[in-house]
Every structure is written in structure tokens, then in C-alpha cells.
Design brief:
The chain is α+β, with helices and mostly antiparallel strands and about 170 residues long. It contains three helices and five strands; from the N terminus they run H-H-H-E-E-E-E-E.
Length: about 170
């Protein structure tokens, strides 16, 4: 009888060991496949991040902050941030009553005001304007003088107008 108890105990222990070995193997396989899946996702995210960085660098190509030759024009003025200074001066034109004087259109819903500004180099600015419903873009030539005054000259403009199947760009 004692012999049968030891035999049953041995068989029961062997079955537990077999169960643990099989389930451990399955858990290891599942973990390895999950690790591989996560590594693939990390690789995809790295590629996506690299593409985003390249796009950001490409977008910064036409930018005063990244153009050392254009920034050299302002070395004698000792401006800490010429881009910010010029942007602030352009936004000050929004403070006049009515439409912005650089926008050659009359606002239809409200007054046209400049919203976004992209300073391309030491001579050119691209700006977006809107009245809340309608919008357009303007190309501005500017000159930063030694007395820190800024002269803005409108070079070209366009206004997007609504049509039945979408939006149409119109220049005048």
C-alpha cells in the first residue's frame, strides 16, 4: 500500500512537472512573439520619427532662424531674436481699426487681420490673413532699418473664395 502511495505521488508530481513544462513553453513562445511584435512597432516608430524629423528640417529650410547668411544682415543691430522682432512689428499692423492696411481686401464677415507669419529670409515674409470665414495669403517685402523701424511692402496676394464644390483660389 505504501508502495502505491509513492507511485501515485510520483505520477502526480510527474504530471505537475509536465504541465509546468508545457505551459512554460507556451508562455515563452507567446512572450517571444509579443517581444518581436513590439520590436517591429518600435522600428516602425523610429522610421516614422526619422521621416518627421526630415520633414521638419525641410520645412525649416526657408526660415530666417536657420539662414545664417540672412541673419548676417542683422549682426550690426544686436537684436537677440530678429524673427520675433519682425513678427511683432508685422502683428502691430493688426492694431489699426478696420482691416489690416497690408491686406488689399475688405473683410466680408469681420475685418481682415494677419494670423500666421513665416519669415522666409532677410527680405520676404509669407503671411496668412482671415476675417473668421474667408482667408487668403500675402507675400510681403520688408526692410529692417538701422533705427529698428520696419517698412512693409505688399508684393502679391490671393484670396480664397467659396464655390459650390470646394474652395477656389483667386488673385486680383
Amino acid at each position: 500500500m505504501k508502495k502505491n502511495i509513492y507511485l501515485y505521488l510520483f505520477i502526480f508530481t510527474a504530471l505537475i512537472c509536465l504541465y509546468l513544462a508545457v505551459s512554460g513553453s507556451k508562455m515563452s513562445t507567446a512572450s517571444n512573439s509579443r517581444i518581436q511584435s513590439l520590436e517591429n512597432k518600435v522600428d516602425a516608430l523610429k522610421d516614422s520619427l526619422q521621416q518627421s524629423e526630415l520633414r521638419a528640417l525641410e520645412m525649416q529650410y526657408f526660415s530666417l532662424e536657420n539662414n545664417d547668411d540672412a541673419l548676417a544682415y542683422y549682426d550690426h543691430l544686436e537684436l537677440e531674436n530678429p524673427t520675433r522682432y519682425i513678427s511683432d512689428k508685422l502683428l502691430e499692423t493688426n492694431e489699426s481699426k478696420g482691416d489690416n492696411p497690408l491686406v488689399p481686401y475688405e473683410g466680408m464677415e469681420n475685418d481682415f487681420k494677419i494670423n500666421k507669419i513665416k519669415i522666409l529670409n532677410h527680405k520676404w515674409i509669407l503671411a496668412d490673413f482671415s476675417d473668421g470665414k474667408y482667408w487668403g495669403e500675402i507675400l510681403i517685402r520688408y526692410e529692417l532699418k538701422d533705427d529698428l523701424g520696419v517698412d512693409f511692402t505688399l508684393m502679391d496676394h490671393l484670396l480664397y473664395t467659396e464655390v459650390t464644390n470646394g474652395w477656389l483660389s483667386t488673385t486680383f
